[in-house]
Amino acid sequence: MSSTDVTIVVVDPAELKPADAKKLPVRDGDDAWKITDLRQIVEVLNSDVERLVTELGVTEHELDDLLHTSEGAGDDQADAGSTALEREQEMSIVNNTRDMLEQSVDALRRIKAGTYGACQSCGQGIGRARLMAFPRANLCVTCKQREERR
Ligand SMILES: [Zn+2]
């Protein structure tokens, strides 16, 4: 388990052409994507990826330390309990960070593939406003809400 499990994708915003933006799926009633919006999203995703890789490295290191803290060596019951709790918390931070990293990388991959902006569940456009606010989003609001209700 390490951050190298995630294959990092970086998109150079300068390489994106207005035509790349125009062909992306939009939500009914939305205007076509503008290259400026797409570049802005790419910049956010690129810096998210960079930040998350760093964070993941730090939390994984901390988790590693916690996992290698010798089990019960001189610890009393309370110490052992708090170490277990700490490990659990650290593990959930690592998992969350990894999820966010994977979602960001996946978004960049979809931008490269020209499929960014389509809901991964129903195939409809996610909507520019939602993506500008949540560049990692891969579901439209309707599908997201349905998923959360499950
Ligand atoms: Zn959907």
Automatic annotation (TrEMBL):
Residues 114-149 form the Zinc finger DksA/TraR C4-type domain. PROSITE patterns: ZF_DKSA_2. InterPro entries: DnaK_N, Znf_DskA_TraR. A zinc finger (dksA C4-type) spans 119-143. It holds the Pfam family zf-dskA_traR. It comes from the Bacteria. The keyword Metal-binding applies. Keywords: Metal-binding, Zinc, Zinc-finger. This is TraR/DksA family transcriptional regulator. It comes from Demequina litoralis.
